[in-house]
């Protein structure tokens, strides 16, 4: 029987093994990474004929979602099972687990939401429409305290001809409230380009050019600076 080991960085010391499914269940085993001993072996019941969208592990919680079925949140220690209806929770394109707050982020159709492990929606964001449809995590940063999310987002600005702008914005939002607390946007009159220093490179971008087609984003929490890279191979530094 072949297995696919999934190791979650937010579940220290635990490895989840997912065995080949049968028509009615999938065998699962939780191992201790320290000594390889099995901690729990069990069978999770499935709906016959429905593909598995995902199986995700977060500490003692197991998230299982099948095609066109409710999300199941299983506590592997107590065997308590919680279901979230498919009308409320649709399959996301990506997850980020917030181990400090015992919550998880979901990304779907450019939107972000925060959930708890009781199946309750904690936060929806008021101004945080992601630029990329497929949720490129290269353009998303979660702070160490897991209280802020910084992302490359769709901008409200329009192009000169009235069409949708190809220039995005960098939005910083509070994870617990969903409020946008800061934004770097091309139409912000407070933004300016730092003076050129002696010996500095001769390649310069305008602010709109620097916010176009951003492919990577990083926030230096010590220096309070945001670094972005774009498809032209240029790196820009944003500081207050």
TrEMBL record:
<dbReference type="InterPro" id="IPR015943">
    <property type="entry name" value="WD40/YVTN_repeat-like_dom_sf"/>
</dbReference>
<protein>
    <recommendedName>
        <fullName>Anaphase-promoting complex subunit 4 WD40 domain-containing protein</fullName>
    </recommendedName>
</protein>
<dbReference type="InterPro" id="IPR036322">
    <property type="entry name" value="WD40_repeat_dom_sf"/>
</dbReference>
<dbReference type="InterPro" id="IPR057221">
    <property type="entry name" value="DUF7899"/>
</dbReference>
<dbReference type="Pfam" id="PF25463">
    <property type="entry name" value="DUF7899"/>
</dbReference>
């Amino acid at each position: 029987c072949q297995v696919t080991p999934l190791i979650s960085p937010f579940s220290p010391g635990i490895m989840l093994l997912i065995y080949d499914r049968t028509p009615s269940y999938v065998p699962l085993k939780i191992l201790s990474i320290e000594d390889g001993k099995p901690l729990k072996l069990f069978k999770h019941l499935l709906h016959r004929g429905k593909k598995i969208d995902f199986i995700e592990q977060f500490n003692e919680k197991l998230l299982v979602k099948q095609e066109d079925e409710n999300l199941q949140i299983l506590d592997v220690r107590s065997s308590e099972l919680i279901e979230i209806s498919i009308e409320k929770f649709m399959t996301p394109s990506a997850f980020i687990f917030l181990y400090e707050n015992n919550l998880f982020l979901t990304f779907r159709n450019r939107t972000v939401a925060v959930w708890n492990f009781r199946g309750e929606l904690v936060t929806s964001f008021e101004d945080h429409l992601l630029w990329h449809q497929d949720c490129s995590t290269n353009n998303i940063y979660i702070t160490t305290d897991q209280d802020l999310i910084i992302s490359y987002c769709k901008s409200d600005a329009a192009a000169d001809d009235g069409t949708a702008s190809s220039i995005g914005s960098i939005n910083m939002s509070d994870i617990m409230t969903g409020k946008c607390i800061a934004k770097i946007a091309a139409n912000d009159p407070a933004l300016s380009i730092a003076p050129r220093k002696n010996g500095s490179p001769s390649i310069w971008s305008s602010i709109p050019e620097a916010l176009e087609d951003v492919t990577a984003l990083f926030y230096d929490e010590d220096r309070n600076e945001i670094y972005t890279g774009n498809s032209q191979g240029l790196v820009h530094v944003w500081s207050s």
